[in-house]
């Protein structure tokens, strides 16, 4: 099991915004803990495994305010000699949601053809 620590900077101006951000992060798939950090209390720190960082950032951006994915740190608990690996995202990183393509198809043949009568 690989634990992740994700830091997302979100524009939060009041306690209501911070509470909303924590609720959104807490219900995300794979999240074990959520806390607010930073000098201005503008960083959401999420810990868990199997978290989709881009999806969580997109949700916070959509429902709270401008959000930037700061870092994703992989914490390995199996071997104590391993050091955490930190991935720094560029400041202009943007994830665009890809909508699934839908295709409408018509059946080529009728599954229940009318009875054939030959006389």
Characterize the structure shown:
The protein has about 120 residues and is an alpha+beta fold. It has two helices and five strands, in the order E-H-E-E-H-E-E. The chain has a five-stranded antiparallel sheet with strand order 2-3-1-4-5, covered by helices on one side. Strand 2 (about 30-35) and strand 3 form a beta hairpin. The N and C termini lie far apart (about 70 Å).
User: Helix proportion of residues, in percent?
Assistant: 10-25%
* Low-confidence runs of at least 5 consecutive residues: 96-101
Mean pLDDT: 78
Write down how many β-strands occur, each being a DSSP E stretch of 2 or more residues: 5
- How do the SSEs run, as a string of H and E? EHEEHEE
What spatial form do the alpha-carbon principal axes imply?
elongated
Which structural class fits the helix and strand makeup?
alpha+beta
- Distance between termini? 72 Å
Membrane topology: Peripheral membrane protein
GO molecular function: metal ion binding
Protein name: HMA domain-containing protein
GO biological process, one term: plant-type hypersensitive response
């Amino acid at each position: 099991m690989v634990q992740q620590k994700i830091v997302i900077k979100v524009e939060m101006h009041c306690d209501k915004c911070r509470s909303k951000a924590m609720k959104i992060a807490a219900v995300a798939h794979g999240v074990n803990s959520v806390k607010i950090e930073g000098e201005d209390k503008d960083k959401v720190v999420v810990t868990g495994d199997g978290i989709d960082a881009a999806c969580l950032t997109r949700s916070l951006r959509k429902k709270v305010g401008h959000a930037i994915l700061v870092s994703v740190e992989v914490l390995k608990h199996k071997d104590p000699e391993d050091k955490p690996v930190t991935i720094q995202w560029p400041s202009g990183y943007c994830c665009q949601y890809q909508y699934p393509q839908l295709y409408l198809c018509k059946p080529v043949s009728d599954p229940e053809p009318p009875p054939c009568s030959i006389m």
